Amino acid sequence: MVKQTGKGRYGEVWMGKWREEKVAVKVFFATEEASWLKETEIYETVLLRHENILGFIAADIKCTGTLTELYLITDYHEHGSLYDYLKSTPLDPKAMLNLAYSSASGLCHLHMEIFGTQVKPAIAHRDLKSKNILVKKDGTCCIADLGLAVKWFSDKNGVDVPPKKLVGTKRYMAPEVLDKRLNRNRFQSYLMADMYSFGLILWEVARRCVSEGIVDKYQLPYHDLLPTDPSCKDMWEIVCRKKLRPALLSRWRSDECLRQMEKLMTQCWAHDPASRLTALQVKKTLAKMMESRDITI
Questions:
Q1: Which residues form the Protein kinase domain (predicted)?
Q2: Among 7, 152, 238, 284, which is least packed by CB within 10 angstroms?
């Protein structure tokens, strides 16, 4: 273990060394064994490996007399989370599209069921936010923090979801999660809730893209409408009752790339889950935007 790089509700994150390579080590409190088991199980899913999903290395339990530590060891990305990266880095359209496309690509792989000699179940993330996406050295992203994710095999009826009703980060919760309308027995409901959160992430990324020499400072979604740590009631009031969404910037209208990004985000955060785009639709749209700018994928 070299140095601590972060702290969360489940434990700590460290940068470690393994065979002279840097690795990230998520250390769970002993009381969070269920979270550790769940995240390990998701990372060990058949065919989950993908360049835009955080690379899993190992999981381990270390007992030092009185103390039990639960380790989850993954690839290390020094840029940290998309949240950290956006706070310090203004983007040009190419950088913006790289971040958006690679995130959509990872989410698309997660959401997809793959059939073959082995079957990869469809997986819903359930806590998608800019703090749970990491930025790699080449300016692309990978999806991380799969501790709340749920799997679904189409040959099984129903969804294997733990009974806890509200999960995720309040600020990123879809309207149907906030007003408890989410159909817990239909897997598609969880995928569409992810897409709402993804729309908010696209908004965060687009704000940091320079157009006409202007760039807006990083903000969290709904920063101007909510307290720093909003309650579910605060969120419900804004998102469900008033049906408000993050403010769209006027400068986006005069930039073709940002205009298309605005259209994408609004289609993702539609109030009605059935009206939202799927991860595959978002990925294909972003791929077309990149091709029209000769950006290699």
A1: 1-290
A2: 7
Q: Considering the entire predicted model, what is its pTM?
A: 0.96
Question: Number of C-alpha atoms within 13 angstroms, CB side, residue 145?
Answer: 21
Query: Under CATH, what is the fold of the domain 3-75?
Result: Phosphorylase Kinase; domain 1 (3.30.200)
Does the domain made of 82-292 have the CATH classification 1.20.1260.10?
no
Q: What are phi and psi of 216, to 5 degrees?
A: -90, 150
Amino acid at 252: W
Name the one residue in this structure whose structure tokens are 């969404």.
245
Give the single-character DSSP code of 236.
Answer: I
Q: How many residues does the chain have?
A: 297
Burial class (CB in 10 A: 0-12, 13-18, 19+), 124: buried
Q: What angle do CA 152, 156, 158 make, to 5 degrees?
A: 70
Angle between helices 93-111 and 279-292 (to 10 degrees): 150
Which phi and psi angles does 151 have, rounded to 5°? Answer: -100, 155
Measured between alpha carbons, how far is residue 20 from residues 6, 17, 24, 165, 292 in Å?
Answer: 21, 6, 13, 43, 41
CA atoms within a 13 Å half-sphere pointing along the CA-CB vector of 57 = 17
Residue 141 is classified by DSSP as E
Angle in degrees, CA 187, 192, 194, rounded to 5: 100
Q: Residues 261, 192: contact at Cβ < 8 Å?
A: no
Q: Which of 127, 145, 194, 255 is catalytic?
A: 127
Q: How many other CB atoms sit within 10 Å of the CB of residue 174?
A: 26
Element (H, E) at 197: helix 187-207
**DSSP codes, 89-115:** --B-HHHHHHHHHHHHHHHHHHH--B-
What stretch(es) of the chain map to CATH 3.30.200.20?
Answer: 3-75
114-141 confidence digits (pLDDT tens)? 998 999 999 999 999 999 999 999 999 9
Is 127 an annotated catalytic residue?
A: yes
